[in-house]
Amino acid sequence: VQLQASGGGLVQPGGSLRLSCAASGFTFGSQSIGWYRQAPGKEREGVACVSATGSPMYHAEAVKGRFTASKEIAKNTAYLQMDSLRPEDTAVYYCATDPVLWCGNTYMPKFGYWGQGTQVTVSS
Q1: Which residues sit opposite 84 in a β-bridge?
Q2: Tens of pLDDT along 64-112?
Q3: Coil vs helix vs strand at 5
Q4: How far is CA 25 from CA 51, 67, 74, 116, in A?
């Protein structure tokens, strides 16, 4: 299983970014993809998740209405669209998956397979 997140960068408050997660080594249409983030000095937290078939599932309260998780199965790529970014969204963002765990509308487990992170910095 390989996951590679990209698309991070420096953005001003109120701006947008779209993170991508390129996947290989497993059946992409059969597993959920989760997005997590870790800010300096804080624990890693679940941000958003998309189902195996591409339906947006769990989104943390802090990002509801601003972030949207999705996937393009034909491209083996998942996305995290981030709008109305805030300084508190600054973190390293990771994508992850698992062959035996799935996310639901109200929960997001800690998946077992992780890609490297991509830094998102929201600052003026």
Answers
A1: none
A2: 999 999 999 999 999 999 999 999 999 999 999 999 999 999 999 999 9
A3: strand
A4: 18, 27, 14, 16
